[in-house]
Amino acid sequence: MPAAFFVVRATVADPAKRAAFDTWYSREHLPDAVKSFGAEKAWRFWSLTDPSLHQATYQFADEAALDRATNGDDMQRLVADFNRDWPGVTRTREVLVLAEEYGA
24, 31, 67, 71: which is deepest, by most CB within 10 A? Predict the structure, then answer.
């Protein structure tokens, strides 16, 4: 079964809030999400094209593991925590399945 990914893109429109958001995500949210989801690993990115765009990507062994993570109680808690700590920061979410991997 191919790996599956959960991608969350957040727009931090206020440049003055980006450093605090980065610290919070790194120290609190990302470790909590990885543990709660049971993700294999996770990455975070800031866009060079649009500096307000932050992306977090979580990797799961397969679709079933991703479904368990995103449909469980922890997902609701993580969303509520995010909304409490970062009101006004909009997000989009995507679920992806690996179609192909190429290279070393």
Answer: 24
Say if 11 falls within a structural domain: yes
Q: Print the domain residue range for 82.
A: 4-97
Cα 49 from chain centroid (whole Å):
19
The answer to whether residues 71 and 60 touch, using CB atoms and an 8 Å cutoff, is no
Check: CB of residue 19 under 8 Å from CB of residue 37: no
Query: Which residues fall within 8 angstroms of residue 52, CB to CB, at 6 or more apart?
Result: 11, 12, 13, 15, 18
Exposure b/e, 22-60, CB count within 10 A at least 16 = b: eebbeeebbeebbeebebeebeeeeeeeeeeebebbbbb
Residue 57: CA atoms inside 13 Å, Cβ hemisphere, count? 11
pLDDT tens per residue, range 20-35: 999 999 999 999 999 9
Distance CA 97, CA 37 (A): 17
What predicted TM-score, i.e. pTM, was given to this entire model? 0.94
Query: Does residue 103 fall inside a structural domain?
Result: no
